[in-house]
Amino acid sequence: MPEQTTLAHLQTVTDSLESGATMQIRYLLNGALPAQDVARLLESSPPKERKLLWDLIDSKNEGDVLQYLSEDIGVQFMRNMNTERLVAVSEHFESDDLADLLQHLPETVVKEVLASMSSQDRLRVEALLSYSEDSAGGLMNTDTITIRPNITVDIVFRYLRRHNKLPDMTDNLLVVSRSDRLLGSLPLTKLLVADVNATVRDIMETDNTVIDAETPASEVAQLFEKMDLVSAPVIDSKTRKLLGRITIDDVVDVIRDEAEHSMLSMAGLDDDEDTFSPILKTTRRRAVWLGINLITAFIASYVIGLFQHTLDQVVALAILMPIVASMGGIAGSQVLTLVIRGIALNQIGATNTRWLLNRELIVGLLNGILWATVIAALTALWFDNIKIAYIIASATIINLLFAALTGTLLPIFLKKLGIDPALAASVILTTVTDVVGFLAFLGLATLFLV
Q1: Which of 10, 4, 73, 76 is nearest to 41 (CA)?
Q2: In what order do the strands lie in the sheet with 172-176?
Q3: Quick check: helix, strand or coil at residue 176?
Q4: How far, in Å, are 22, 337, 358 from residue 18 at the CA level?
Q5: At what angle do helices 83-90 and 107-116 cross, to 10 degrees?
Q6: What Pfam families does the record point to (predicted)?
Q7: Cα(279)–Cα(314) distance, integer angstroms
Q8: What single DSSP character describes residue 31?
């Protein structure tokens, strides 16, 4: 397992640092371990040890390691490099990965790095920098092999032999006109068995999946998954000119980043949250959502305060009150997670929202009746008070219905406002289920007990 291997290497490095055996660490970082494992090792180390390890990596190996580091940590190291070192390490990056990193560096540094590149490499990176990193244009790699439709298969073979190495993930050659308009593709599997005298036009495929440069990265990932693609050409939709191609390894990164985004956002954390980031930086990032949560907690407390007189008279209500809010919170979270997933997969739209809402309301009602019966029976046995049992049962059903309603409609509403549902919905949902739960339970108790 890679994780277990990384932890074993981390223990070795920690022991070596404590004993001062830096030569052993330098050996591990500069040849004994693959660049991928060195990157994992850096990401698994606290800031102080991370800097020590980075300083022990030879300058010739820095680029190899940087390309496997998370964007946040990679940018931290690159910001401390001078232009000469940045130029040296940039040679190890593919154009799309380099463009992603340069977007996070000061503009003056970016200009110096671009000025030091060859004209061909500079044009490639500048083309990528003109697009958002979360779009197909930002994901694409400009390193592609193109051929003309009027040449023979024999000429294609001779042309390919002149390349020392084909670009990674090359599964087909892209056929373009003299003005670089995409005409089709020639799969390598088809090329290998073709008659050497046949022309590219005779055997090329024209029903290719093409991607507009402005397409969001999430849609690109869904397209690759749906069509089982290894690579896909990226074009300018207005001119149909070929701009580059996206490969499956870049799409895997998008899928992983989206999964991390959803997981961290549910806890109010940033996408680039570093497990070992400095104390003040971590504190600042988390403080915002703790403050928002505090406000919502005060709202719930205010609702409880409205029924202080009722609570003073019936102490059992204070004991049972959290049950109603908790049941609503869990039920709402289940619905919310399902709907956010559906939105991410583009499965939810105007045509099926009503059906989904009706389904969740019915599920909420059935679960409400089931668990309200259980809660009421336990309450009656515990406090020997049938009125309180009926009240908590009714409040449970009401809160589960509101949880289903909010969990279904809230993320759809936030999406329409351009707000990320994964980031904001859980905080709002918790507030709604707490407030409705307390209001229903204590309100009914005020009506029927006091």
Answers
A1: 10
A2: 146-147, 172-176, 182-187
A3: strand
A4: 10, 45, 62
A5: 60
A6: CBS (PF00571), MgtE (PF01769), MgtE_N (PF03448)
A7: 46
A8: I
